[in-house]
Amino acid sequence: MQLSWGEKRDWIRLYRTSTVGPVAFRDLLKRYKTAAASLDALPHIITKKSIRIPSREAVEAEMDAADNIGAKFLMSCEADYPDYLKMLTPPPPVICCLGNTELFNRPGAAIIGSRNASAMGLRFARQLAHELAEMGYVIISGLARGIDASAHSAALSGGTIAVLGGGVDHIYPRQNHDLYHEIAQSGCIVSESPIGYRATARDFPRRNRIISGLSRGVIVIEAAERSGTLITARYALEQNREVMAVPGSPLDPRAKGCNRLIQQGAALIETAQDVKDILEQLPPPQLMEPIRNDYDGDHFDWQAAGQNIDAAKPLLLQLLSPILSSRDEIIRQTGLPIQIANAALLELELNGDIISENDGRIARNTNI
Fold first, then answer.
1. Does any domain span residue 286?
2. 304 within 8 A of 341, measured Cβ to Cβ
3. How far apart are CA 363 and CA 317, in angstroms?
4. Is the pLDDT of residue 287 over 60?
5. Is 156 within the bounds of a domain?
6. Are residues 266 and 125 in the same domain?
7. What percent of the chain has pLDDT over 70?
8. Where is 325: in which H helix or E strand?
9. 355 by DSSP, 3-state: which?
10. What b/e readout covers 1-20, taking b as 16+ CB neighbours within 10 angstroms?
11. Average pLDDT, the chain
């Protein structure tokens, strides 16, 4: 499937709308079939807060800006969207890419780790990335200082993908200016964020989800016990990706995260051949089974279901707490028809009553 220019614009407008994340985007398209129809429906769904839908002019300007720097938008329904990323439930609806998107067709291995890495850790990241690139793997990382930058630079000749928290045109950190341009020339820069956007701390978990999502396996080299690197490892496990870790000295706090991952079942790796052997033995990743929709969406009467959807909201809110819980489990506990529960959760999310994570967990929003 390939969207028209106007359909792409509508997808971007919908995904850039406040409170519309990947889960809400997916559910809106299930219910209204197109992004344009979903945009028309939003004013009737979001009643508790002001809606910030980007104007057509603003999104068209962003599309022109992307075109001017040679970047392009890929939508999750399109054939050239990365297959591995498409396997996520749900995938990021819109990504922007600058560079060689043919790299998505090759097997990818993510190398991530500490920004304040040791000299030994940096050396091992360079060696591992170079050897894996020679074996045909695309090296994926986040263009951060330390392990990320070492892995990218060693894999330039073989192919590397950098996933950013900001827009594809935002170079961060500035010390990676030259590396950024080298990757844009021979590799690929990927981001979920708008052109011109500068990343904040809340954007990096989304970036990390894409790093693991594009990869067949994630290799961790030096990570403290509490770090963004371990968030990426958690995403990898949720996405049915292999997690591998390089062991380190128990006296070095930068090794504690890796050693803990190994204790919890991550594969211990010492060479590029170890990684190759592990990845080649894995079956292709499969889509995680979502909660079953046992209705024909094309023939479901959403207008007639309005009262039932409204009645479901208090029951769902009663079951939810500020602690994140499984969306599927909450729905099962209500005993409600799945389509009614999903529709009620969608409207609660869009109105800011609940928080919905990309991995399907939900919680009551206590900040309202």
1. no
2. no
3. 9
4. no
5. yes
6. yes
7. 95
8. strand 325-326
9. strand
10. eebeeebbbbbbbbbbbebb
11. 91
SS3 204: helix
- Cβ proximity of 209 and 218 under 8 Å: no
- Structural domain span for residue 242: 101-281
The pTM is what?
A: 0.90
Q: Of 239, 257, 281, which closes a domain?
A: 281
Domain count within the chain: 3
Residue 286: what pLDDT? 57
Of 123-127, 275-279, 294-298, least confident by mean pLDDT is 294-298
For 240-284, how does the pLDDT look when each residue is reduced to its tens digit (9 = 90+)? 899 999 999 888 898 999 999 999 999 999 999 999 999 999 876
Please report, for residues 19, 224, 349, 355, 365, the alpha-carbon distance to residue 313 in angstroms, rounded to integers and kept in the order given. 17, 41, 11, 14, 14
Same domain? 322 vs 274: no
357 and 229 in a common domain: no
**Separation of CA 44 from chain center:** 29
48-100 per-position pLDDT tens digit? 777 789 999 999 999 999 999 999 999 999 999 999 999 998 999 999 999 99
d(C-alpha 246, C-alpha 271), whole Å: 9
Q: Which pLDDT belongs to residue 226?
A: 81
H or E element, residue 267: strand 267-268
CATH number at residue 325: 1.10.10.10
First to last CA, the chain: 40
Q: Identify whether the C-beta of residue 108 lies closer than 8 Å to the C-beta of residue 187.
A: no
Cα distances (angstroms) measured from residue 63 to each of 12, 59, 76, 292? 9, 6, 17, 36
In angstroms, the CA 231 to CA 194 distance is: 23
Q: Are residues 236 and 146 in the same domain?
A: yes
pLDDT, residue 47, reads: 83
